[in-house]
């Protein structure tokens, strides 16, 4: 299995020389390679062979593709996940579908499942890949039913030793609004009696598409960032823990907004 080369529990892109295609047509370069990665993974998934190792390989291939077109990626706080001896609920903001593609290489080999919108299981080709990795599918239109699904299915995954990744915003956004963060992830951690790991991310290098929101252009001038904070235990109703998560995300995004683009 491909693994990230870490230094001090962090990962940072090493600057690469770009090909002419990557320099002048970064989005074309990215999507042509992504299509190959997804089609190949889909064929493996159809055969029932898309295990955690194959998933991590696909995720690493996407990361490598982004770096090949000049996107700078930095990941910090990985020890907060990798040093845990039990499954956890990982809760973060949601900007684009890049996080769904990149997170597996950060968290595996620890077993993990995503809470995803039902429509991802209906995308041609991609549905086979998503469906092979034990997702928890929600409608995003019926909050009451979604909460029941996440609590019931999430507890099962956690009891089976799988961590669960939750994006509690009602929709993806390049602007973080704390009041749009539901407490669904905190409630799941409370019910399953497992830790919460706050996660902040910045993946707006993938812009929203005009025709299809998921598939916009790549802006390599916008770096990709992930950060994981120390695990928390949920006490009481979880209001304090939700506030800690929101604050971590806000502070991380504020810090990243002042960065100078790596060159």
Descriptive notes:
The protein has 263 residues and is α/β, with parallel strands linked by helices. The protein is 41% helix and 13% strand. It contains 9 helices and 8 strands. An 8-stranded mixed sheet has the order 1-2-8-7-3-6-4-5, sandwiched between helices. Strand 4, helix 6 and strand 5 form a beta-alpha-beta unit. The model has no long low-confidence stretch (mean pLDDT 91).
Give the structure's gist in a few sentences.
It contains nine helices and eight strands. It has about 260 residues and is of the alpha/beta class. An eight-stranded mixed β-sheet has the order 1-2-8-7-3-6-4-5, sandwiched between helices.
| Helical coverage, percent range | 40-55%
- Please tally the helical runs, counting DSSP H or I stretches of 4 or more residues: 9
Lateral strand order in the biggest sheet: 1-2-8-7-3-6-4-5
- Report Rg: 18 Å
Query: What percent strand?
Result: 5-15%
Can you tell me the overall shape? globular
Sheet with most strands:
8 strands, mixed
Mean pLDDT comes to 91
